[in-house]
Specification:
Blueprint lengths: L2 H12 L3 H20 L4 E3 L3 E8 L2 E4 L6 E4 L2 E8 L1 H7 L2
Antiparallel strand pairs: 1-2, 2-5, 3-4
Helix pairs in contact: 1-2
Length: about 90
């Protein structure tokens, strides 16, 4: 399911227009992005949690040339499925 399919489904289930459903979906994902970018964890009980993993900088290698390259430190978002979601997927 992609974002537009999610919007269509939400519009049908809530008996709203696609415009209203799109606004709701954008607010939902926008708030998750904002929370993660400020370093917070997002937990949705029964579904899962979004969090950041922090990686320090390190010396990497360019696979084409073999030259050493400094890879800067970074934060990457991760998702961990909740118990209810794991059980539903494995039914």
């Amino acid at each position: 399911m992609n974002k537009s399919q999610l919007i269509d489904k939400l519009a049908v289930v809530t008996n709203q227009t696609n415009k209203v459903a799109e606004g709701s979906v954008n607010i939902f994902f926008g708030n998750i992005k904002q929370a993660l970018s400020s370093g917070d964890k997002v937990e949705i009980r029964g579904f899962g949690s979004f969090f950041l993993k922090k990686y320090e900088s390190y010396m990497g290698r360019n696979p084409k040339t073999g030259a050493k390259v400094l890879v800067p430190k970074k934060n990457l978002p991760f998702f961990r499925a909740g118990k209810d979601l794991r059980e539903k997927v494995n039914e």
